[in-house]
Amino acid sequence: MENTDILNEIMLNARQIPLDYQERTLDILKGMAFTKKILLNSPSKIKEQENNKTTD
Fold first, then answer.
1. Helix, strand, or coil here: 34?
2. CA atoms of 13 and 43, how far apart (whole Å)
3. Predicted confidence (pLDDT) per residue in 12-33, tens digit
């Protein structure tokens, strides 16, 4: 499943809920995207920090 498929499914289902809940859902999705970004970038950052500690 592609990201656009997931986004389209979320948008279709979000129309059926009240605006307050839509805003909360958007906040949750933003948090999930942020967490994914951190987790995907984290291993390279950890390796860099470990290398910096051993060279210091």
1. helix
2. 34
3. 888 888 988 889 988 998 998 8
